[in-house]
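In the current project phase, the collection of sequences with tokenised folds has grown. A representative record is quoted in full directly below:
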Amino acid sequence: MTALLGTALMLSPGYVVARAQSDQGNSAKQDMKDAGRDTKAGAKDVGKGAKSGYKGGEKGTKKAYSKTKNTTKGAVNGGKQGAKEPPQS
């Protein structure tokens, strides 16, 4: 009986170590999967932000173009109007 107990005690650390290594292998694999998913989600967020920034820039550019065009027309028309009137002294 004592020999059986001694043998069981000698073999149990090997089983525990093997089991721990097996668990580490699975957790490392799972960590890699999680990291991949997180990276993918982050890339999607960056893409959405870039698209939003592009759309905002496009809208601002169109607005600036329109205002510049209208101001230029006003300045040209004002210049024509001023050219028709005699200078005031």
Residues 12 and 18 are 10 Å apart (CA to CA). The chain has a mean pLDDT of 75. Residues 42-66 form one domain. The two ends are 127 Å apart (CA to CA).
